[in-house]
Amino acid sequence: MPQAWFRFYGELNDFLPPSRRQKAFPHRFDLSAPVKDMIEGLGVPHPEVELILANGESVGFHYLVRDGDRISVFPVFESLDIGPLVRVRPAPLRHPRFVLDAHLGKLAAYLRLLGFDSIYRSDASDHELANLAGEGRILLTRDAGLLKHGSVTHGYYVRETEPRRQAAEVVRRFQLERWIEPFTRCLRCNGLLERLEGDPPPSIPAAVRQRHTEFWRCPGCGRHYWKGSHYRRMQEWVRAIR
Question: Has residue 3 got a pLDDT over 90?
Fold first, then answer.
C-alpha cells in the first residue's frame, strides 16, 4: 500500500492524537488524493493551514500525494515572510467580521463589546454557519469538523474555554488591536448603537436617569445603554486587551 510521511508544525498539533504530535509519522492510502483531503482526514481543518511543503517544495491544496512523499504542514505565520512560496490560505479579509457557533455565545458578546461585527444564533445549523462564513466572515468555533466545510475560507478553532481569554486569543490571532472600537455595538443583537439626544425615555429607570446624563440605544432591538457600575471594569479590560 502507498505511504507518505506527514509532519505538522506549531498549533496544528492541537488537532492530532498525542502519538503523532511534533514528529513525522507514516500515513498509508489506497489511492492518490489531494493533500487537502489527506490533511483533513488526519484531523486538521484546512482554514488553519498556511503553507504545505511536499519533499521540500511549496505546493497547493490540490497537490496529489504520491507514494514516498514527505509532507510538511505549517500553521499561519504571524511575522515570518514566506515570500514567493504558495500560501494555501486566502488573503486576510479587509474588514474582520465574525460568525460564531452555538458554544461561543459569551465570546460573541465580548467581541461585540470590542466593536466587532459578530453574528451569533444559538439555533443556527452547521450549514447556516458555513454559508455565513462563505459570505466574507471568519468562522469561530469549538468544533473542528465544522471548519472542514468546503465553503469555509476563513476560520479558526478557539483553543481557550474561558470567554475573556477566548476574546484575547482571537484579538491576538487575527491582530485586531487597531480595529477595536469599544462600546459601539449592542451586546444582545450586534447592532450599532446610537447616542440619544435630549431627555432620556421613560423606559429607563428613574434612578438611572437621575445618576446618568449619557445614554445610547440600539435601533435594532431597542435596548438602552449607559455607563453603569461595570463600565470602568470593562474599560480596564479593553486596555488590557489592547
Answer: yes
